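Thread: Newbie trying to understand structure tokens

Hi all, I'm a second-year student working on a class project, and my supervisor (Dr. K.) asked me to get a predicted structure for one chain before our next meeting. I've only ever worked with sequences, so writing a 3D structure as a token string is new to me. If someone could post the tokens and maybe explain what I'm looking at, I'd be very grateful. Here's the chain:
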Amino acid sequence: MSDKEPIHVQLLQDELRDCKALSKSLKILAGEVSNMMDRMVKAEDAEEVFVSMGEDAGRRLGEKARDQFGVIENVEEALDTFIHRTNMWYGYEIEVDRIEDGTIYINILESFIRDILRDRKLSVHSSLCGITRGYLKGALMELTGKEVDIEVVVADVDGIFREKITVR
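---
Reply by user tm_fold:
Sure, no problem. This is what the structure looks like when written as tokens:
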């Protein structure tokens, strides 16, 4: 072992500690923003704001994917492209559960939003959850050129989040 290795390990440990502290701070901030929005405006208006934020971010990602892969008209293929062929789903792990009569059911296994809800002991009915639906909607609309709707089917902060995607 060289003399530099213990120093390198200590630097990595310090960096990890700083990253964990920043992550915790961001969770607190996001939770407080969600609580504030829910207190300031009606719940459906607060959710609309968060969905819109997510859609804007999703559209930017959808544009990047469209530049890389071209327009993918089939929503299932577009979703598959995002899940498996890009690194654009920061903070998410998503799987297709099933496809039934043109409706795609997905499971959101990991989500930075769920981490915030869990950490701040917020309900899955928090308006903050709208970010994920907006994110998916904006990305898929931009990549496919089609209007899509995304609805929550099941939401459990400690279990599964299942959503359904339909093309309008």
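A couple of things are worth pointing out once you decode it. The chain is about 60% helix and 20% strand. Strands lie at 92-100, 103-111, 148-155, 161-167. Feel free to ask follow-ups in this thread.
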